[in-house]
Amino acid sequence: MKVILMEDVEGLGRAGEVVQVASGYARNYLIPRNMALIATSKNLKVFKEEQKKRISRRNRARRDAQAMAEELNQLSLTVEVPVGEEDRMFGAVTSQTIAQLLKEKGFGVDRRKIVLDEPIQALGVYTVPIRLMPDIEAKVKVWVVKE
């Protein structure tokens, strides 16, 4: 059975390609998961329209991410933490803490997009990268100060 791939399928092909697959594989796996359409002229037109919409959504998301990155690059966050003797912090500043501070400032950033190799455990100024898209990254300045 010939199908049009709606998205990249590992070991089979890239989105937009017309490939020959077993009919059971197409009916039971690819088509129910909206990964492929049966290769007809009508479905080819449907795919091209869907592709145009997908590209416009991706471009819009890219523009929004770029604008957010420019705003985040100008942002500075302050985290007040309790400290003990010799300015040792109790606990740590994690990506969850930074995400909460960003939310309070009006930025809805998922904590998984905040790139921290390990939690911040000392007072100081840190530049924390935030990966908004695979190729768009913002850097937020985080000040960790004592209460």
Question: Can you summarize this structure?
Answer:
With 147 residues, this protein is of the alpha+beta class. The protein is 35% helix and 25% strand.
Set down the secondary structure blueprint.
Layout lengths: L1 E4 L12 E3 L2 H8 L5 E3 L2 H33 L2 E6 L13 H10 L19 E10 L2 E11 L1
Parallel strand pairs: 4-6
Antiparallel strand pairs: 1-2, 1-3, 5-6
* CATH class category label of the largest domain: Alpha Beta
Our estimate of the beta-strand percent is 25-35%
Number of strands: 6
Helix residue percentage: 25-40%
**Overall 3D form:** elongated
Q: Count structural domains.
A: 2
Strand order of the largest sheet: 2-1-3
CATH topology of the largest domain: Ribosomal Protein L9, domain 2
User: Major sheet, described briefly?
Assistant: 3 strands, antiparallel
Helical stretch tally: 3
SSE succession? EEHEHEHEE
CATH superfamily assignment of the largest domain? Ribosomal protein L9, C-terminal domain
Protein architecture, described:
With 147 residues, this protein is of the alpha+beta class. The protein has 2 domains: 2-62, Ribosomal protein L9, N-terminal domain (Ribosomal Protein L9, domain 1, 3-Layer(aba) Sandwich), CATH 3.40.5.10; 69-146, Ribosomal protein L9, C-terminal domain (Ribosomal Protein L9, domain 2, Roll), CATH 3.10.430.100. The protein has 3 helices and 6 strands; from the N terminus they run ββαβαβαββ. The protein has a 3-stranded antiparallel beta sheet with strand order 2-1-3, sandwiched between helices. A 3-stranded mixed beta sheet has the order 4-6-5. 15% of the residues are buried.
